[in-house]
Each structure stands twice: as structure tokens, then as C-alpha cells.
Amino acid sequence: MRVLVVEDEPKMAGLLRRGLAEEGYAVDISADGRDGFGAAVSRAYDAVVLDVMLPELSGFEVCRQLRGNDVWVPVLMLTARDGVDDRITGLDGGADDYLTKPFHLKELFARLRALTRRGPVPRPVKLTAGDLRVDPTSRRCWRGEAEVVLTTKEYALLEAFLRRPGAVLTREVLLEHCWDFAFESRSNVVDVHIRALREKIDRRFGVTSLETVRGTGYRLRADGGRANARPR
């Protein structure tokens, strides 16, 4: 088993190299994020142990770029910061597990064994309609090559439509999918958020993909609206 350790602190890197070697791993060391990214995309590793605080590129950015380049090797992130927001950032960026310093080497070994048993994570399926697409893992959205920044509720609505392109979704279905039970089905909250979503994914690009079905609800065109795009 070959493991890449991306760690800029020499004592920690040496400790990890020795410990992993004693466990039978072949170990490569990178001392900064840019070098670690280059190593991970150019060689086949069974796992990557990735520190968060790195020169050149942070561990968060390294992980995000790996996933963006379809490198799905298991990633175990290390950090001296134990805040919930940091853990969420790492996991949302594509990390598979997260270990806070200081830690016991035995725990790191156990987590690596679990990750390598599972093997590379398959690429998550992107949801698409024409040139409109979202990535459920990162919760990001694009129209063509342009990224569209959505609020949490706007993203939830769009994902609901993209999971059933061409189907009519009632306001009740959208409320159930995107809101908690505090909202009444007669509320206009869906219509308000649909208008905001249209501004971002349609009007900005001169297309109409989100259609109103009178008396029923809304539908996302399966072609993403490009077939009826206005000349720009």
C-alpha cells in the first residue's frame, strides 16, 4: 500500500513516515500543498494524509482541486483546529475523514485501514439539464462554464428539479422537499424563491428553463432552456 503524506512540519512528517513504514506502507512525503497536489495527480496512491495548514495551497484547496480533477483517492485530513466549521469545510471539499491533532498513531492507522478497505470513492453523478448542472457533493451550480452562486434554498429547489427534469412538481412537493413542517402549503415562499432562482439560472443567460404550469406548480425543461434561448 502506498500513501502520500502532505505535511510541512518536519517532525510530524518524520513521525508519520516512520510509523506508516512500520505498519508496512510505502510512504512519500510532500512538504507543501502545490507539490502534494502534483504528486497525487501523477501517481497512484492508496490514500493521502493531508494536513490543512500548508504553504502554497491549503489542504482544503488541495482536496478540492483533486476532486475537481477526478482524483478520488481516499483523503484523510489532519488539522490542529478542531472547530466544527473546519471539519465541515474539509468534508464538503471532498475529504473522506478528518483527524484533529494531537492524535494517536494507532487511531490514524485504523482510519487509514478503513479508508483503504473502501477503496477510491466513485465520482459523484452530476445532475444536468442541457448546459445547466449541479454537483451534489459540493452543492455548486454551473450554466455552461459560468458558475452560479445559489443560496441554500435555491440550491435545494434546483436539485429537486434536476432529479426529475421535465416533470411537473407541485408547490406542495417542493415545500416537502425543501422546507420543514413550519411552512403551510398555502405560503408563497416557493414562488418567491422560484423567482430568485430564475433570475440567476435563466434571465442572466437569456434562457427559460423554469416554466410555470398554471394551477399546478413548476417544471424544469429537460433541455435546460437552451432550445428557446434568446440571441445575445
UniProtKB/TrEMBL annotation:
It comes from Saccharopolyspora phatthalungensis. It comes from the Bacteria. The modification 4-aspartylphosphate is found at D51. CDD domains: REC_OmpR_CusR-like (cd19935), trans_reg_C (cd00383). This is Two-component system OmpR family response regulator. Residues 2-116 form the Response regulatory domain. Residues 124-222 bind DNA. One of its GO terms (cellular component) is protein-DNA complex. Coiled coil: none annotated. Gene3D superfamilies: 3.40.50.2300, 6.10.250.690, Winged helix-like DNA-binding domain superfamily/Winged helix DNA-binding domain. GO terms for biological process: regulation of DNA-templated transcription. InterPro entries: CheY-like_superfamily (IPR011006), OmpR/PhoB-type_DNA-bd (IPR001867), Sig_transdc_resp-reg_receiver (IPR001789), WalR-like (IPR039420), WH-like_DNA-bd_sf (IPR036388). PROSITE patterns: OMPR_PHOB, RESPONSE_REGULATORY. Residues 124-222 form the OmpR/PhoB-type domain. Pfam families: Response_reg, Trans_reg_C. Keywords: DNA-binding, Phosphoprotein, Transcription, Transcription regulation, Two-component regulatory system. The lineage of its organism: Bacteria, Bacillati, Actinomycetota, Actinomycetes, Pseudonocardiales. GO terms for molecular function: phosphorelay response regulator activity; transcription cis-regulatory region binding.
